Amino acid sequence: MNAPAESLVAAPGIALADYNHPSSLIYGIGNVGRQDDGLGWAFIDWLESESLCPQGEILRHYQLHLEDADLISRKQRVLFVDATKEADVEQFRLERVEPKMDFSFTSHAISIPAIMATCEQCFEYLPEVHLLTIRGYEWELREGLTPPAMQNLEAATAFFA
Q1: Is 92 helix (H, G, I), strand (E, B) or coil?
Q2: How many separate domains does the chain show?
Q3: CATH code at 69?
Q4: Strand segments (E) across 49-139
Q5: Over its length of 161 residues, how does the chain's per-residue pLDDT go in tens digits?
């Protein structure tokens, strides 16, 4: 499957080789027990199974935490990977993220822009941050990706392969 054009335009020139360095972080967000919410972790599984980016730091978490501002303050480049329900994402989207303080820091779902803004505010530093969102369809309490989500994951991994 070919990557959607939006993925190629939103963040041109991004390659996994850019993240194969100790100063880089690839951070998979999700929950494998909620079907397609596990797409972020599935992408990390793919990286590990293919032995890609062995020098970079690779993490999996269920959600972002305020403390992640400290984590990214020690990195030059960060790639967050998460599932999305957004209908305008056909298969996946890769985009650069900018800091923006919002009120998500008061909930269990702090946003990536809020993590970045906190990093900038507290540590006077901001790494280059990109977000890979992969389209998911089902979020029930069940393990395993749906077939359409698996196709989208394959499109995202093909883009990077």
Answers
A1: strand
A2: 1
A3: 3.40.50.1450
A4: 57-61, 77-84, 92-96, 128-135
A5: 333 334 433 566 889 999 999 999 999 999 999 999 999 999 999 999 999 999 999 999 999 999 999 999 999 999 999 999 999 999 999 999 999 998 776 666 899 999 999 999 999 999 999 999 999 999 999 999 999 999 999 999 999 98
* Residue type at 157 in one-letter notation: T
Write out the DSSP string of 49-68: HTT-STTSEEEEESS--TTH
Closest CA to 47 of 35, 60, 33, 31: 60
CA angle 37, 85, 76 (to 5 degrees): 70
| Residue 151, domain extent | 5-160
Judged by DSSP in three states, 89 sits in: coil
Whole-Å CA distances, 67 to 7, 105, 112, 116: 29, 11, 12, 11
Beta strands 57-61 and 24-29: pairing type?
Answer: parallel
Which residue type is seen at 97?
V
b/e per residue, 96-133, with b = 16+ CB within 10 A? ebebeeeebbeeeebbbbbbbbbbbeeeeebbebbbbb
Question: Whole-prediction pTM value?
Answer: 0.92
